[in-house]
Amino acid sequence: MTNGWVDMKNTDMMLIMGGNPAENHPCGFKWPIEAKRTRGAKMISVDPRFTRTSAVADLFCQIRAGTDIAFLGGVIRYALENNCIAKDYLVNFTNAAFIVRSDFKLPADTDGVFSGLNAATQSYDRSTWNYAGAGGGAHPDSVATYAPGQAAHGANPPAPTLPEKVEYDLTLQNPNCVFQLLKKHYSRYTPEMVERITGIPKEQFLKAAELYTSIRKDGDMKKAGTIIYAVGWTQHTFGTQIIRTAAILQLLLGNVGRAGGGVNALRGHSNIQGATDMAGLFDNLPGYLKVPTPADASLEAWMKRITPTASKPASWDSFNYYSNTPKFAVSYLKALYGDAATKQNSWAFDYLPKVDRNYSWVQMWDDMYNGTVKGMLAFGMNGVAIGPDSKKNIDALKKADFLVVGEIYPDETSEFWKSPGITKDEMKQIQTTVYRLPCAGFAEKDGSFTNSARWVLWKNTALPTPGDCRVDQAIVAQIFLKIRELYKKDSGKFPDPILNLTWNYSVPSSPPLAEVLKEINGKALADLEDPATKQQIKAGQQLPGFAWLKDDGTTSCGNWIYSGSFTEAGNQTARRDPSDPSGLGLHLGWGWSWPANRRVLYNRASCDVDGKPWDPTRKQVWWNEGQQKWVGNDVPDFKVDSKPKDHMGPFIMNPEGVGRLFAPLAAFADGPFSEFYEPIESPIDNPLHPQQTHNPVVKRFKTPDDKYGTPKDGYTVVCTTYRLTELYHYWTKNNPMNVQLVPEPFVEIAAEMAQEMGLTGGEKVKVTSIRGEYIAKAMVTKRIKPMMIDGKKVYQIGIPIHQGYRGIAEDEGKDARTLVNLLTPTVFDPNAYTPEFKGFLVKLEKA
Amino acid sequence: MSQETLRIQKISGHAGSVPGEDTQRQYTVCKLIDTTTCIGCKACEVACMEWNDLPFGETVFDNSYQTMPETRWNYWNLILFNEHEREDGSLMWLMRKNQCMHCAEPGCLAACPSDGAIVQYTNGIVDFQQDKCIGCGYCITGCPFNIPKFNKETKRVYKCTLCTDRVSQGLEPACIKSCPTGCLHFGSKDDMKYLAEQRAKQLRDHYNFPKAGVYDPPGVGGTGVIYVLHDASQPELYGGLPKDPRIPLSVKLWKGPLKWLGNIAMVGGLIGLFAHYLRYGPKEREEEAKEPHEGAQP
Amino acid sequence: MSEHADQILPHGRVLRYPFGERLNHWIAAFSYIYLLLTGLAFWSPWLFWIAVLMGGGQISRTLHPWAGLIFFYAVARMHGYWSAQMKNTEVDKQWWRSISHYVQNEDDKMPPAGRYNAGQKALFWSFFYAAIVLLLTGIVLWFPEWIPWNLRWLRYISVFLHPVAALFTIANFLIHIYMSAFAERGAFGSVIHGDVTLHFAKRYHPAWYDEIVRRANAPRK
User: Fold this and answer.
1) pTM, rounded to two decimals
2) B266 Cβ under 8 Å from any chain C Cβ
3) Which of A239, A350, A567, B149 could form a disulfide with B73 if both were Cys (CB 3.0 to 4.6 A apart)?
4) Region A519-528 average pLDDT
């Protein structure tokens, strides 16, 4: 989240899409309700079903799964047409005025793709996605595109760069300025087009667009609106671009950086944010540093590639905070390898693995299926159940040599070999050795949770682990120590990274997590002094924050964004001071929030150009003329002594210093603006450009288990999957309390569809996709309605996940239940590699 | 269970005075349920189960998100889910937490024949004392909200206690504690009434619910659980919340006029017969009856 | 010893109630008294102490319906024994018209009653119909948890009719006790020993007496 859970109480308007927080985040949902009750805020719920969130929303639009870009594009168009935009914000805080290269082409000018598409390789040459201007050398965030199975680096030509001095037009009239391109691009998302694509009747859509943009009526800046989303957006082959569209809308309306504003991702598990921060994705190192690739021959080459230089209008200033990247990277290497990382060996850069291709979730299973991955350690997740395409994952595991599962219950993954449909004879053929390790549950371990709001919150152990159960870090540590012992004994091809890994824990076989957090926070390796304040830190002391990090080997830090979480003052994440003097829900003494304990990102943008808050009743930070610095209730997310007249952009993590309506160069694999494409399985051709229905850079997998259905094959019903508040993932079917609340699997079906099928609630139905089938009882409801999609009547159905072939029902000898992910396709978003769980095609019949 | 720290102002099946009646100036406690902010998360259901340590029961899928069709002897707190189409075609998914309403004039208590099986504390909580319950089930008939539930094993009736054990120690009931959205509030009746009216006003003025209002039915003397409803004119939409709940007429007749008539008749009958005996005596004197019989011979 | 009704016994007595009928009467009587006592305990808080005396509220509540079944069984058997004799006749109408004489013990001014006078017949039918109402409403009250919410009117009706019917029986019961134990000497003994004196028969049931005599004098077949 740019903002935070508690901050939502400050909002005047909520657009909740691609998420159902009332269902999945009931505790956090307190704050949207608070905003309604105390501020009279309005809530718009856009969802394929009328959900628990919709039940308390002021307006509901039923959208076809996967068409969110069309909806948001339509709202952008509406805001522009009706002057519901934040003009000053737009000109000064975004790249609206920047001029784009004249050879850049929009999908409107081509066949539905941006300029530079190589149809054969299904990838973009993104050099035209750039600003016009002079100078250069900056390498903006060089996110590589990792297509399935393909090496993305190595043979690449030098990446194109952003100009140092960007051409701009503050009147926003230049036809090639970002603002005009944006206008042109989204002008195609008319209410009629929105209706054809999304199925939301034009009048209903206009109601929603009018309501949401009403906060910026005639450009008045007092109010703020927030956009709240979850995996309903991310789990698509264009998921990142949906979020981009939301970001563009929020920048247009001047909602980013504001209390009660922002673009807010609701994370699906208690610590999924923490996992992501700690390199949950294969192409990140902790703190979102880009991994080195084989092309990065040296530390310098790597640093040159991933450290941007400022790119801005000449008269403006840009903090370009990522210019500090080498400090973060070297401190990280020092944390990993300690004294073995020296200036001479480039801080042990060679020890770091170089990532040569895609190693994302779906790819891993594909690799195992194809025999290149031989074993798996599965902790804290149930790989078979969470899919997609569970059958492919089960088939992959059959081919593996070994599988280690650390869990608190026997799960589907550890019992993949007896999933429904496998005969006794087939079981005998499966040679995979499965090790099942009893682990500790969440209440049996300490450590921290990082919530959706980036708040890192320490928790204590509530209960001892039962029996032989062990905490995860003990298992992982003991595997590591064993491997290190083997390397010590037998040497090996390259033992140094293993032998030199820092392992200074008081209990090496089970590292105390507080010590790990201290290591992540970082410490001084030599005596340090801040030249400005003369503050000193002695060697060995914990660092107060990432501003102290050095690229000369005098600091170590496991994750720069967590620097400040465990200082000399102690474990900051364990703080529990609930006070909130400003009333803005900042609670600076409650836990600790990255970065630097600031609660709302880009909060400089909560003020106008002169440094005065847009809304004096919600003062977050402001320029204090007397002190000549930025001060506030929140920690300013800005260079504190940068005077307003210097015109430094508030978006300090971008080399431009401003928000990106247009995301240049390699920022995204599939376009600098968002464009609506159909899900891989969709009931119609893309009404915007039927010849280019899908995201052009999305690739399909090729194994026999990878099949994709079409309406021609009879798959005409749009299906989406989701969670229920009563159950937690695939765990709670082992808990009688939860099972009592939702005893059986079900499929939500529109009453009209049920009537056509002669189906009544409670009867069994069979849902079939081209990959598999799912049997459950029908929940016939008015909460899903048939839709008219591009003139075609289309039904949607919804299936809660949570069921599988391991649980109380199975223990009682009842028929094994099936996994919903037997239905879902293996295909993923080209930027975040998230599979497309939402919006695939099925057919439905009585079982 | 009886709470020593709570004084009793009404007792079921009780002859004579009540020890706590009018002896305290304690606040009447009240639970406010704002159905317009309920998200049906069932945290209250689970909290109720947990706090009261109720055993699990079997449920089956019933074409609904609702856990079970109605409350059970071991399930005192149930959110009722109802789909409702408004006149303008928009859909509402109404969720109402259903539990004992803790009526000021409780029908269960009125109907109960067992001395002390149902009590009302001076703070307004209506509580069942299972040790004194005789299992007659009259409370089931007396309740206009279908709340008391019979346990076939113990032959006693159970329901929400408003967590008397917690409330008597100054805590809020478990359901209130667990509610994530703040849809549930707990406090004095006056405060809750005020809060509820404020919210209803906001819904009327600002949120397109012109008929929003507070449910605190006077037919049972008001309730210790009050609702904010989007449409107070149609409480039936919320899983059959009675529009004008009252203690059933037959129960009132039975416990009122019939009782008096019956008592008068019985006592009057006894007196009458005695008087008759005094006035007329037996139909025959003893000696008469023993008179030798002349008549047919065997 | 085989018994049959109306048999003339030695010592000037006549058999009024054979053993089966006597036994049945007392089954009805004891079950009714139990029902009456426990019922009264539930009727008024002032009488709840009776339930305590009877073993406690729980036991009273548990046994009351079973006693009710027994009582109903006995009443049903009475119906089998006596319903034919309980038919209203022209004489009964006259009897009712002369009720004030009966109340004032001027039995000689009463029309001749048969085996049962009109008052006894009324008692019989009162108990019979009341027992049916008590049974039906009693079953509803026995298992209130089985009555679905939309049939709750059944409970509402039952909870009212059950005591109404009970009160009705109580009125009858009081008169019955009074008449049998206090007013008519010999009546009580008739349900103990089974027989009454011929004098008793002649005095209270002259038509019956005539019938007995007629039959006794009739030639044997």
Assistant:
1) 0.93
2) yes
3) B149
4) 98
| CATH, residue B45 | 3.30.70.20
Q: Best interface-test mutation with C: which of B134, B260, B286 has the largest number of C CBs within 10 A?
A: B134
Return the bridge partners of B81, or none: B95
A near C: at least 3 beta-carbon pairs less than 8 Å apart: no
Nearest Cα residue in chain A from B179: A27
What domains does chain C contain, in order, with CATH numbers?
14-85+94-215 (1.20.950.20)
Residues B171 and B274 in one domain: no
Q: Does residue A328 have a pLDDT over 80?
A: yes
Nearest CA in chain C to B264: C167
Locate the chain A residue with the closest alpha carbon to B78.
Answer: A741
Indicate whether B229 and B282 sit together in one domain.
Answer: no
Does C192 score more than 50 pLDDT?
yes
B236 in C contact zone (CB under 8 Å): no
- Asked if B202's CB is within 8 angstroms of A40's CB, the reply is yes
Please list every residue in chain B whose beta carbon sits closer than 8 Å to the beta carbon of residue C155: 140-141
Q: Which residues of B touch C182 (CB under 8 A)?
A: 277, 282
Please, which pLDDT band fits residue B290 given cuts at 50, 70 and 90? low
Q: How far apart are CA B41 and CA B67, in angstroms?
A: 11
Residues C58, B111: C-beta atoms closer than 8 Å: no
- Chain B: residue whose CA lies nearest to A724: B41
ipTM rounded to 2 decimals: 0.93
Q: Is C32 helix (H, G, I), strand (E, B) or coil?
A: helix
Is residue A505 very low, low, confident or very high in pLDDT (cuts 50, 70, 90)?
Answer: very high
The answer to whether position B1 is within a domain reads no
Give me the percent of chain B exceeding a pLDDT of 70: 94
Domain spans of chain A? 6-87+188-273, 711-846
Task: Report the neighbours of C using a cutoff of 3 or more CB pairs below 8 angstroms.
Answer: B
Q: Is B62 on the interface with A (CB under 8 A)?
A: yes
**CB-based contact (8 Å) between B58 and chain A?**
yes
- Does any domain span residue B3? no
Mean pLDDT of C66-72: 97
Does residue B131 share a domain with residue B227?
A: yes
Q: Which domain holds residue B262?
A: 253-290
A55, A737, A777 ranked by CB distance to B39: nearest? A55
Please indicate whether, in this complex, the C-beta atoms of A736 and B56 are within 8 angstroms of each other: yes
Q: Which CATH superfamily is A6-87+188-273 part of?
A: Dimethylsulfoxide Reductase, domain 2 (3.40.228.10)
Confidence of residue A139 (pLDDT cuts 50, 70, 90): very low
- Same domain for B96 and B156, yes or no, is yes
What's the structural domain count of chain B?
A: 2
The CA distance from C48 to the nearest CA of chain B, in Å, is 7
Is C50 in CB contact (< 8 Å) with chain B? no
B188 in a structural domain: yes
Is any Cβ of chain B less than 8 angstroms from the Cβ of C57? Answer: yes
Looking at CA atoms only, how far is residue A36 from chain B in angstroms?
9
Q: To 5 degrees, how large is the angle CA A66–CA A69–CA A72?
A: 125
- Number of CB atoms found within 10 A of residue B152's CB: 11
The pLDDT of A128-139, averaged and rounded, is 79
Q: How far is CA A429 from CA A383, A400, A405, in A?
A: 21, 12, 21
